[in-house]
């Protein structure tokens, strides 16, 4: 259940006209009163003898008893309370009880017999609107300080009492939600999202891997946004605001949003924190242009691997920094990936945006590797989704899924409920993106695994049982075992010790969240041994030619303990 306190107004009758009107596209059905301060307020919705002006006069009477100079200019308090889509339809009596609890909790009508006058109107199954006059019966102003937080706290209790969908408690770090006016305007103009949401996503992508103000503002301009900078008298840049060129007000002027009003971490001071500490290499574009998208994705995979260890083993500031930078990587990967993965990756980045902020201050500098990875992805250009580019995209998504899962664990331990839920949602989108990206390269590896000679298959089985005795039977039963078997053969052919690398790949990170342990271990081995991710050209069973790698096997290591930490 979501209560929302709207901006205070000065026109009670105007608000009542809206609440009792047909609404945008005639969405208001049977507007009627469900509760009021005295249980006897006139209902212009169902009482033919009552008018909206009658209700307005009743609500505003305490206001007019004051001298004109003592009347507050903004005296209209407005709160909407909305149930979740999957909640049952509540009765009028239940909504009346909810309205009374909300006005009591917020200080509008605390139950002392002299509270503000209010009325609750219902014009849809799933929500009500509460309108009140901010003058008490005794002429004093109500104590409604922090009424939004107080309403949210009461809503959590209401959810429990009525067995409704439990909303995760917020912590004040979420991006500002679109107002009802913004949503209605978007609907009138046929927009799928509000300008505020579209701008936030566009600005967030422009931030990914940027190293300076000039690069950031250049990206905003290239994205087609209208940008205004706020300058001090000295000429120093103080802030910025952005607008969509086709989103205008009644005067035909662009509707601007400051960065801080899009999301707390998109204000200029917060962006400067990223640019001033641990900046990525501004000259990386020359290197990544030569290497191409697949090399950038390999570096992204390695950076994500290191970030996972930093979240698990570092302090809170370092963890907060790399989790925030993970959002940049997701944005960059979504921007540069092929059509068949782009939608799910964009949804993953959009969901993870909420997980990238908390009250724990990020210790900038620890995020350098991930921000460099985001920059590499942007400057390497778009990937076609085929061959090595497509296979390394799958490799990167697989590792980013584990990074996002690690963020879920971290937020859950810190009791960051909204952030943990957002990261979990991002993980589901990454799973879907992985399925799309990995289908072709895994099919090629699977065919190569099928065509291994019987003695070679027996050898790979023996290597697996030697490296991972606790997991071997589970892996052998997976369909992806042939993928791992082909990769083990490639690893050995490239001069590596497959037992050592396989044991290390299994021990380094948890595997319980992997849909296929075989596939996950195969990607980790191909990254560690620097093997080509795409083997479609060698699907006839011929030996693969590995990327340059040391021919000498790495030193033997003591076999690690195989812990499989749960979600």
Number of domains: 3
What general outline do the C-alpha atoms trace? elongated
The helix content, as a percent range, equals 40-55%
Give a short account of the largest sheet.
Answer: 5 strands, antiparallel
Unreliable stretches covering 5 or more consecutive residues: 539-567
Q: Helical stretch count?
A: 21
Q: What's the alpha carbon Rg, rounded to whole Å?
A: 29 Å
Give the N-to-C terminal Cα separation. Answer: 28 Å
For the secondary structure, the number of strands is 8
Strand ordering within the main sheet: 1-3-5-4-2
- Along the chain, the helix and strand elements come as EHEHEHEEHHHHEEEHHHHHHHHHHHHHH
Structural class: alpha+beta
Strand content of the residues, in percent? 5-15%
Report the mean per-residue pLDDT as an integer: 89
Oligomer: single chain
């Amino acid at each position: 259940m979501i209560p929302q306190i709207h901006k205070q107004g000065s026109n009670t009758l105007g608000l009542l006209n809206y609440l009792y009107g047909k609404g945008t596209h005639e969405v208001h059905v049977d507007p009627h009163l469900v509760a009021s301060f005295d249980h006897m307020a006139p209902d212009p919705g169902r009482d033919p003898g009552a008018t909206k002006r009658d209700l307005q006069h009743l609500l505003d009477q305490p206001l007019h008893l004051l001298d004109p100079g003592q009347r507050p200019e903004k005296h209209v308090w407005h709160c909407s309370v909305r149930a979740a889509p999957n909640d049952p339809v509540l009765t009028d009596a239940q909504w009346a009880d909810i309205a009374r609890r909300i006005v009591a909790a917020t200080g509008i009508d605390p139950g002392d017999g002299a509270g503000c006058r209010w009325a609750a109107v219902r014009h849809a199954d799933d929500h009500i609107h509460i309108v009140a006059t901010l003058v008490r019966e005794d002429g004093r102003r109500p104590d409604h300080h922090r009424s939004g937080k107080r309403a949210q706290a009461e809503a959590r209790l209401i959810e429990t009492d009525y067995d409704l969908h439990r909303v995760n408690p917020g912590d004040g770090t979420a991006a500002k939600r679109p107002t009802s006016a913004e949503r209605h305007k978007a609907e009138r103009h046929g927009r799928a999202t509000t300008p505020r949401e579209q701008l936030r996503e566009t600005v967030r992508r422009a931030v990914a891997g940027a190293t300076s103000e000039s690069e950031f503002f250049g990206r905003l301009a290239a994205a087609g946004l209208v940008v205004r900078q706020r300058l001090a008298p000295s000429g120093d840049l103080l802030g910025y605001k952005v607008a969509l060129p086709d989103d205008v007000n009644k005067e035909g002027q662009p509707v601007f949003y400051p960065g801080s009003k899009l999301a707390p971490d998109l204000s200029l001071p917060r962006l400067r924190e990223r640019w001033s500490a641990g900046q990525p290499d501004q000259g990386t574009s020359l290197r990544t242009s030569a290497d191409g998208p697949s090399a950038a994705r390999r570096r992204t995979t390695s950076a994500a691997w290191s970030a996972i260890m930093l979240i698990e083993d570092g302090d809170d500031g370092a963890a907060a920094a790399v989790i925030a930078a993970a959002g940049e990587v997701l944005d960059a990967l979504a921007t540069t990936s092929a059509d068949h993965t782009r939608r799910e990756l964009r949804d993953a980045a959009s969901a993870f945006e909420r997980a990238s902020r908390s009250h724990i201050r990020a210790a900038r500098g620890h995020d350098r590797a991930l921000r460099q990875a985001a920059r590499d992805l942007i400057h390497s250009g778009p990937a076609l989704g085929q061959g090595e580019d497509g296979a390394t995209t799958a490799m990167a998504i697989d590792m980013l899924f584990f990074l996002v899962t690690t963020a879920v664990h971290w937020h859950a331990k810190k009791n960051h409920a909204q952030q943990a839920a957002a990261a979990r949602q991002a993980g589901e989108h990454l799973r879907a993106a992985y399925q799309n990206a990995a289908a072709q390269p895994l099919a090629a590896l699977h065919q190569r695994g099928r065509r291994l000679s019987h003695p070679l298959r027996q050898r790979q089985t023996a290597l697996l049982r030697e490296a991972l005795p606790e997991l071997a039977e589970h892996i052998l039963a997976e369909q992806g075992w042939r993928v791992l078997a082909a990769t083990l053969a490639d690893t050995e052919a490239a001069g590596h010790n497959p037992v050592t690398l396989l044991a290390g790949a299994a021990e380094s990170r948890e595997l319980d969240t992997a849909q296929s342990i075989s596939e996950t271990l195969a990607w980790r081995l191909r990254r560690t041994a620097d093997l080509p991710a795409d083997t479609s050209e060698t699907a006839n069973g011929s030996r693969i030619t590995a990327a340059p790698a040391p021919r000498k096997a790495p030193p033997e290591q003591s076999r690690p303990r195989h812990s499989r930490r749960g979600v």
